[in-house]
Automatic annotation (TrEMBL):
Entries under PANTHER family matching the protein: AMINE OXIDASE
Gene Ontology molecular function: oxidoreductase activity
Domain Amine oxidase: 6-408
Superkingdom: Bacteria
The protein, known as: Amine oxidase
SUPFAM superfamilies per UniProt: FAD/NAD(P)-binding domain
C-alpha cells in the first residue's frame, strides 16, 4: 500500500480483515493524509475545516461512531450580510430557530418550500453510495439550483458560501451530483466532528491494523515492474516485493507513480486559526454572503467540542477560498479585519494558518463518469483514493474498500 490517507488505511484494513498481509508506506510523519489534527498551545487545529456526515454510507461500515465520540453542529447557518446577521435553519430539527428562519430575508417563501421539498425527497429511498453514482445527466451546482427555481438572492446568500465551504468553490461550478449527495447526507444525518479532532478518524482505522503495518516517513519513489506486471515498490529505504501494489496517494502523485490517467485540477483553501472571546453563533457555521467576501465561512469549533480548546478558552476556524500566495501576516490580518466587522465586540488572537492548495480534486460536471477504476490494466497494480469515487471522506473510504475487494478478488 502506498499512502496512509483514509483510502489507503481503509484498503489496508479490509485486506487485513480478508486475511492478507499488508504493509503501508507513508511519506509523511503521520497517518490521515488530508485528515489530520495538530495541537498548538492546547488548541486542536484540524488541517482545514472539515466535517463528517454521520449518514455517509461507506464510512459507517468502517468507523465506530461511538468510539469517535462525535460532537454535532447545529443545523443551518448564521448568514452575515450588510453588517447584519440572520439565522437560517431547519425548523424540524432546530425549533428554536423557527422564528428567525421564517422572518429571514435571505430566502423567499418559495425558496423555503423548495428546500423542505428537497429534504423530504432525500429522506425517501436508499440513494447512491457516493456522489458520483447518481444516474442521469449532470450539470453544475449553480445550473441545478437555478433549474430548481431557487431565487438569485437565496443562491448568493446561502448556497454560495455554504456549498462554497463544502465544495471549496463559491462559483458553484462543481457537479450537481456532489451537491445532491451532500444535501442528502445532511437531510439523513448530522454534521459532526470527533471530540478530539478529525484526526481521530484515520487513527481509528490505523488502530485496526497489526502493529508495525504502517511505515511512516517512507516515501515510495517508483514501482518495480517486470514482464508487464507490477511486483513491488521502491524508495530511499530500499525495495519491497508484493503480490499486489495499491497506490492510494493524491491523484497527481498517483499519476506520476503509475502512468495511469487521473483527473486533473484541484480546489483548496487557507484555514485561519484564532483564539477568540466568542462570536455568538453557538454551534452554527457563519456564512459570509457579501459579494467581495475574503473569509467565506467560519465556526467557533470549541462550541461544537470543548476539547478543541483549553478549559475556558475558545477556538475559531475561518476559511479563505484562495489567497495562497499572500504572506501569512496579511492573511491573518485580513481575516481579523473581516471577522471584526461581523463581531465588533469580539477579540481575535491569531494562532496560525494552513495553506491547502490541493484540498480536493476538481469535480466539474461529468467528471465522475471518467474516473479511473480501482483495478488497472497492469497486473498487480491497483488504485485507491477519493479521485476514483468523489472527493469526500466517504469517497476515500469507499475507494479503499473497493480496491481491497479487487485485490482479494471478491
Ligand atoms: C480543506 C479540506 C476540506 C475538506 N472538507 C471535507 C469535508 O468537510 N467533508 C468530507 O467528507 N471531505 C472533505 N474533504 C475531502 C477529504 O478530506 C478527502 O477527500 C480525503 O481525505 C482524501 O483521502 P485520500 O486517502 O484519498 O487521500 P489523502 O488524504 O491525500 O492521502 C494520500 C496519502 O498518500 C501519502 N503519499 C503521497 N505521496 C506518497 C508517496 N510517494 N509515498 C508514500 N505516501 C505518499 C500522503 O502523504 C497521504 O498521507 C476536505 C479536504 C480538504 C483538504
Amino acid at each position: 500500500m502506498v499512502g496512509a490517507g483514509l483510502a489507503g488505511l481503509t484498503c489496508a484494513k479490509v485486506l487485513h480483515e480478508g486475511g492478507a498481509e499488508v504493509e503501508v508506506f507513508e511519506a509523511s510523519d503521520g497517518v490521515g493524509g488530508r485528515v489530520r489534527t495538530d495541537e498548538r498551545e492546547g488548541f486542536l487545529l484540524d488541517r482545514g475545516f472539515q466535517v463528517y456526515f454521520t449518514a455517509y454510507p461507506a464510512a459507517r461500515r468502517h468507523l465506530d461512531h461511538g468510539a469517535l465520540d462525535l460532537r454535532y453542529f447545529d443545523p443551518g447557518a448564521v448568514i452575515l450580510r450588510g453588517g447584519g446577521r440572520e439565522v437560517l435553519s431547519d425548523p424540524l430539527r432546530d425549533p428554536g430557530a423557527l422564528p428567525s428562519t421564517l422572518l429571514s430575508r435571505s430566502a423567499t417563501p418559495a425558496d423555503k418550500a423548495r428546500v423542505a421539498a428537497l429534504a423530504l425527497r432525500c429522506l425517501a429511498g436508499r440513494g447512491p453510495e457516493a456522489a458520483g453514482e447518481a444516474g442521469g445527466e449532470d450539470a453544475s451546482t449553480l445550473a441545478c439550483l437555478e433549474r430548481r427555481g431557487f431565487s438569485r438572492r437565496f443562491i448568493d446568500a446561502f448556497f454560495r458560501p455554504f456549498y462554497g465551504g463544502i465544495l471549496l468553490d463559491r462559483g458553484l461550478s462543481a457537479s450537481c451530483r456532489v451537491f445532491s449527495f451532500t444535501f442528502r447526507m445532511m437531510a439523513r444525518g448530522w454534521a459532526a466532528v470527533p471530540a478530539r479532532g478529525m484526526g481521530e478518524i484515520p487513527r481509528q482505522l490505523a488502530a485496526r491494523l497489526p502493529e508495525g503495518a504502517v511505515r511512516l516517513e517512507s516515501p515510495v519513489e517508483g514501482l518495480l515492474r517486470e514482464g508487464g506486471r507490477v511486483r513491488g515498490v521502491r524508495g530511499p529505504w530500499g525495495e519491497r516485493e508484493a503480490d499486489a501494489v495499491v497506490v492510494a496517494t493524491e491523484a497527481p502523485v498517483a499519476g506520476r507513480l503509475t502512468g495511469e490517467k487521473v483527473p486533473e485540477g484541484s480546489v483548496g483553501e487557507v484555514c485561519l486559526y484564532y483564539e477568540t472571546s466568542g462570536v455568538g453563533a453557538g454551534k452554527k457555521v457563519l456564512l459570509n454572503a457579501e459579494e467581495d467576501a475574503f473569509v467565506n465561512n467560519a465556526v467557533e469549533i470549541s462550541n461544537v467540542s470543548g476539547l478543541y480548546a483549553p478549559p475556558g478558552r475558545r477556538l475559531l476556524y475561518a476559511v479563505v477560498l484562495g489567497g495562497f500566495d499572500l504572506p501569512d501576516g496579511e492573511l491573518l490580518r485580513r481575516g481579523v479585519e473581516e471577522l471584526s466587522r461581523w463581531c465588533p465586540r469580539a477579540d481575535f488572537r491569531p494562532l496560525g494558518l494552513r495553506r491547502i492548495p490541493y484540498g480536493q480534486f476538481a469535480q466539474p460536471p461529468g467528471v465522475h463518469a471518467t474516473l479511473p477504476k480501482n483495478r488497472t490494466s497492469t497486473p498487480g497494480l491497483f488504485l485507491a483514493g477519493e479521485y476514483t469515487v468523489d472527493s469526500s471522506i466517504n469517497g476515500a473510504i469507499l475507494s479503499g474498500e473497493r480496491a481491497a475487494r479487487e485485490v482479494l478478488g471478491r
